[in-house]
Amino acid sequence: MAASDFDLDEPLSFDVVARTVGTRRSLVVRLAQQGLIETVAGDEEANEPRVPRRMVIQLRRMQRLRRDLGVNFAGAAVILDLVGRIEQLNRELAIMKGRLWED
């Protein structure tokens, strides 16, 4: 199954995220309350916010940083944000270099 087979914005409940990642629901709730993982509004039936599917990937990366490097979740969130920004800048730089070679 390719990554394109999934809707990365599909909203998931805290329970589903916790089971998928292999952690406690209370941890997912706490990280969402602290703003360390993104949430979206739930539907009328759900009385709590939902978590976009792509946050499962983010949470797994945060857990890996915590486990392998001893970084706390807040530090892991900052690291992942900075890595994302660097990757975006590298993409923009590659585009700009491509334009220079075309001229």
Radius of gyration: 17 Å
Q: Estimate percent helicity.
A: 55-70%
- State the secondary-structure class: mainly alpha
Low-confidence stretches: none
> Helix and strand string, N-terminal first?
EHHEHH
Beta-strand percentage?
A: under 5%
Largest sheet: 2 strands, antiparallel
- The total count of strands amounts to 2
Multimeric organization = single chain
Q: Could you say which overall geometry the principal axes of the C-alpha atoms support? A: globular
Q: In whole angstroms, how far apart are the ends?
A: 40 Å
Describe the model.
The chain is mainly alpha-helical and 103 residues long. It has helices spanning 14-21, 25-33, 54-69, 73-102, and strands at 11-12, 51-52. Strands 1-2 form a two-stranded antiparallel ribbon.
